[in-house]
Amino acid sequence: MLASAYGYNTALSLTSTALPNAATATQTFDPATALLLTSKSVHGAVTNYSYSFGPTVVTAATNQHWTKVYKDGFGRDLRVETGTGTTVVSRVDSVYGPCACSPLGKLVQVSAP
Length: 113
Prior knowledge:
Oligomer: single chain
Number of strands: 10
Structural class: mainly beta
Order of helices and strands: EEEEEEEEEE
Mean pLDDT: 93
Shape: globular
Low-confidence stretches: none
Strand order of the largest sheet: 1-2-3-4-5-6-7-8-9-10
Number of helices: 0
Largest sheet: 10 strands, antiparallel
């Protein structure tokens, strides 16, 4: 029988996944902020997350590879940078503009990576 099992913390964030082939994935969260701290994939790769505020930057790092996401006050991505070591490999900028259909505006321009 193929079965999967899932574990959750008190904030109902997914903390573990057990798949039919005995592969497991886990996530850990900061108990004070409920922000994701680490994630371990079914293949064993561990991703560490860090956060800074003012401006908001979310960094995810796996081995020497990393991604930084710069966000505006509404949580929208303004810039996404990926790299390895200290070298930026790709950068994508997003621009949001006014829209009559949405009070937050809409995406109007995205740069090429």
